[in-house]
């Protein structure tokens, strides 16, 4: 489904409620499967979370589980099914999923004694997993590839008879997501310690707290930060439900978007975003090693404001739903921007003149490409290809944009 997106009237102060964090929800769903007394409120309604939920609670009798494009599901479920004694499972996914490496996690689980083999190409899904009781408890893993590999081990750690000790090698990427996992474990009363690149999690028979209310998704909020940044001074949007002391790494958005004249006010579990001033600086440099998921949003904001932007710490983006660095370069250049990419950075030199003619945005089966570019409809009409891809993380996105005054056809 392709859509044409443009703004017909000025945005007025609207109140939107964003569904629960996909990252928190997926961690909690796995913990709920391990500790069935856990009750979760305000869960994400994303496709990714539905995939995890179905795999754990609906499709549990099936020997083959297709996670489609859900990378988080592939990684978390690999660790989970490795611990399910006497259960045989084949984890597979889309053609893109079969191109996304998983050997770092599989090798770590094999160190612990898991029974996992590759069905097709070595190092990539599909995986054949025969669940067994895992008694080894020490594992070494590369920390500079994906934090989700580490989180997958952390989530099963407290149910292993001897717990788990994870030794991290190399520079740790996406530290904020490791800290989120630690915070979720701690909030349920599970012990977990992280010191000097060693994570220790002892065996725990039960959780101490059995209800968890999921915070709304800060990654999803990022698109509204971009909309406010590209709007006139005085424009406001109110979003719920958000905590000032968030577990989510992308909660750095209020600080980052101060650079673009956006003020964030926390009030009664909501945030009020207001454009309070125009941008005075023309060049920004950002290091997003801990929060790579907001890269697309941030660089599109800079494009819309006519700024030059340099973003580094992005080595994980090449193994996401698409090669996000190359995809960004392709689409940003359609607006006349000069874009250079390396293995872990993107550089935007911007002298864009927007027009009344629609620009066609390819989404590459990547939800964040669709949503990150959408705010540019404030500057000129867009055609978003395969717009339904947003359901991966934010199914209500286009309806929420309509509520703000965007015209979608």
Query: How many β strands by DSSP?
Result: 22
Residue runs with pLDDT of under 50 for 5 or more positions: none
Q: Please tell me the CATH architecture of the largest domain by its name.
A: Alpha-beta prism
CATH class of the largest domain: Alpha Beta
Briefly note the CATH topology name of the largest domain.
UDP-n-acetylglucosamine1-carboxyvinyl-transferase, Chain
Gyration radius from CA atoms, angstroms: 21 Å
**What is the number of helices?**
12
Strand order of the largest sheet: 20-21-1-22
Pfam families: EPSP_synthase
Catalytic activity: 3-phosphoshikimate + phosphoenolpyruvate = 5-O-(1-carboxyvinyl)-3-phosphoshikimate + phosphate
EC number: 2.5.1.19
Family: Belongs to the EPSP synthase family.
Gist of the model:
The protein is α/β, with parallel strands linked by helices. The chain is 29% helix and 23% strand.
Walk me through what this model shows.
With 409 residues, this protein is of the alpha/beta class. It folds into two domains: 3-19 and 215-408, UDP-n-acetylglucosamine1-carboxyvinyl-transferase, Chain; 22-213, Enolpyruvate transferase domain (UDP-n-acetylglucosamine1-carboxyvinyl-transferase, Chain, Alpha-beta prism). Helices cover 29% and strands 23% of the residues. It has a four-stranded mixed β-sheet with strand order 20-21-1-22. A four-stranded mixed β-sheet has the order 2-13-15-14, covered by helices on one side. Helix 1 runs parallel beside helix 2 (47-58) and helix 9 (295-304) runs parallel beside helix 11.
């Amino acid at each position: 489904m392709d859509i044409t997106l443009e703004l017909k009237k000025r945005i007025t102060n609207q109140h939107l409620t964003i569904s629960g964090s996909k990252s928190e929800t997926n961690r909690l769903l796995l913990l709920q499967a391990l500790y069935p007394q856990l009750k979760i409120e305000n869960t994400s309604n994303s496709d990714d979370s539905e995939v995890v939920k179905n795999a754990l609670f609906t499709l549990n009798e099936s020997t083959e589980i297709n996670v489609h494009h859900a990378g988080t599901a592939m990684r978390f479920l690999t660790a989970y099914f490795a611990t399910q004694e006497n259960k045989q499972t084949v984890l597979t996914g889309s053609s893109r999923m079969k191109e996304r490496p998983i050997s770092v996690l599989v090798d770590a689980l094999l160190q612990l004694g898991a029974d996992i083999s590759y069905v097709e190409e070595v190092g990539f899904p599909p995986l054949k997993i025969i669940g067994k009781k895992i008694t080894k408890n020490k594992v070494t893993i590369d920390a500079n590839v994906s934090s989700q590999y580490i989180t997958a081990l952390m989530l099963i750690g407290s149910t292993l008879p001897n717990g788990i000790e994870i030794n991290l090698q190399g520079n740790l990427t996406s530290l904020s997501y490791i800290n989120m996992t630690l915070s979720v474990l701690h909030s349920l009363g599970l012990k977990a310690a992280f010191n000097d690149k060693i994570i220790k999690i002892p065996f725990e028979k039960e959780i101490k707290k059995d209800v968890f209310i999921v915070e709304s998704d800060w990654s999803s909020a990022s698109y509204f930060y971009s909309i406010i940044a590209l709007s006139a001074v005085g424009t406001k949007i109110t979003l719920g439900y958000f905590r000032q002391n968030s577990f989510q790494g992308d909660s750095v958005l209020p600080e980052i978007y101060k650079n673009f004249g956006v003020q964030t006010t926390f009030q009664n579990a909501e945030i009020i975003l207001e454009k309070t001033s125009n941008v005075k600086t023309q060049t920004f440099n950002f290091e997003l090693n801990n929060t790579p998921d907001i890269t697309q949003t941030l660089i599109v904001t800079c494009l819309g404001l006519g700024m030059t932007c340099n973003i580094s710490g992005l080595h994980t983006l090449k193994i996401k739903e698409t090669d996000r660095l190359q995809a960004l370069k392709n689409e940003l250049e359609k607006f006349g921007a000069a874009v250079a990419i390396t293995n872990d950075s993107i550089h935007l030199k911007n002298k864009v003149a927007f027009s009344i003619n629609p620009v066609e945005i390819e989404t590459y089966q990547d939800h964040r490409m669709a949503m990150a570019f959408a705010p540019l409809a404030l500057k000129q009409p867009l055609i978003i290809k395969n717009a339904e891809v947003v359901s991966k993380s934010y199914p209500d996105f286009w309806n929420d944009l309509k509520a703000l005054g965007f015209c979608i056809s």
